[in-house]
């Protein structure tokens, strides 16, 4: 496994906008999608390309193309806030869904939905969720995705803490983790500090 933390100025600036409690739901969503789009450029840096013979208006040549399918797996609800941005760069990506919520007392993930895509075993799979807190939701989502046969999995989040990274790494040592920021710690309610609050509520304007 590898852990990549993006300390890129454009991403850090957008993340700071998201962290501010006065930021509107609209601005929160826009910045989330923009960060996801910027991150996926790097997340896909090493995906394989194959030669393809093409004809330009003036010559024949060999181009490069991606022929490995890419599947996004947003963890509902908050992961949905990242899919549009990623699809801007990978419009052919299929989308599978995993629905999980954290029990407020136990912080354990409860599954309520799962919908796979075809050929996920042959695909590069990006499991996406803005928050990696205790690591329970990410680990459970990846259990489900592996149960569908996925073998090549990357986890992409905005804000992580070391506790969550450790839990996810122990559960799935084969999965590389990409995060915009590694924050300080979890509070007694399992919220990331300083974090950005409840990502799902801020995306969807609930609570
Ligand atoms: C949030 C977040 C992650 C999870 C992270 O979802 O989007 O899925 O918590 O916490 P963990 O690492 O401790 O498991 P939440 O359960 O609030 O559901 P929601 O997206 O529907 O708001
Ligand atoms: N889920 C969130 O939405 N925010 C946190 O800080 C932790 C888990």
Describe what you observe in this structure:
- The protein is of the alpha/beta class.
- The chain has helices at residues 9-19, 25-43, 80-89, 136-147, 162-171, 199-204; strands at residues 3-5, 50-55, 60-65, 70-76, 94-95, 97-102, 109-115, 124-128, 131-132, 152-160, 176-182, 185-186, 192-193.
- It contains six helices and 13 strands.
- The mean pLDDT is 97.
- Strands 1, 4, 5, 6, 7, 8, 9, 10 and 11 form a nine-stranded mixed sheet that branches. Strands 2-3 form a two-stranded antiparallel ribbon.
- The chain is 33% helix and 31% strand.
- The chain has a single domain (3-204), classed as Rossmann fold (3-Layer(aba) Sandwich), CATH 3.40.50.2020.
- Helix 1 (9-19) packs antiparallel against helix 2 and helix 2 (25-43) crosses helix 3.
- The longest helix has 19 residues, at 25-43.
- The chain is globular, with a radius of gyration of 17 Å.
Give short descriptive properties of this protein.
207 residues; alpha/beta; Rossmann fold; 9-stranded mixed sheet; 6 helices; binds uracil
What is the CATH-assigned architecture? Answer: 3-Layer(aba) Sandwich
What does the average pLDDT come to?
97
| Proportion of beta-strand residues | 25-35%
Question: What distance separates the N and C termini?
Answer: 36 Å
Helix segment tally: 6
Largest sheet: 9 strands, mixed
Please report the total strand number as a whole number.
13
Structural class: alpha/beta
Helicity level: 25-40%
SSE string: EHHEEEHEEEEEHEHEEEH
CATH domain class? Alpha Beta
The total domain count is 1
Overall, the morphology is globular
């Amino acid at each position: 496994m590898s852990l990549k933390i993006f300390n890129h100025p454009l991403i850090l600036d957008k993340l700071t906008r998201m962290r501010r409690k006065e930021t509107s739901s609209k601005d929160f969503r826009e910045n989330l999608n923009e960060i996801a789009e910027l991150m996926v450029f790097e997340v896909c840096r090493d995906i394989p390309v194959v030669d393809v013979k093409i004809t330009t208006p003036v010559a024949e040549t060999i181009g490069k193309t991606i022929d490995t399918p890419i599947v996004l797996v947003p963890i509902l609800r908050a992961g949905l806030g990242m899919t549009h941005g990623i699809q801007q760069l990978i419009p052919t990506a299929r989308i599978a869904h995993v629905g999980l919520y954290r029990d407020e007392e136990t912080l354990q993930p409860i599954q309520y939905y799962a919908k796979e895509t075809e050929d996920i075993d042959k695909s590069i799979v990006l499991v996406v969720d803005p928050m990696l807190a205790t690591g329970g939701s990410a680990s459970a989502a990846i259990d489900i995705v592996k149960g569908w046969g996925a073998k090549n999995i990357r986890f992409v989040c905005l804000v992580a803490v070391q506790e969550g990274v450790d839990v996810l790494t122990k559960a799935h040592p084969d999965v590389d983790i990409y995060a915009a920021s590694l924050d300080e710690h979890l509070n007694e309610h399992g919220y990331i500090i300083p974090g950005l609050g409840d990502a799902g509520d801020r995306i969807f304007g609930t609570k």
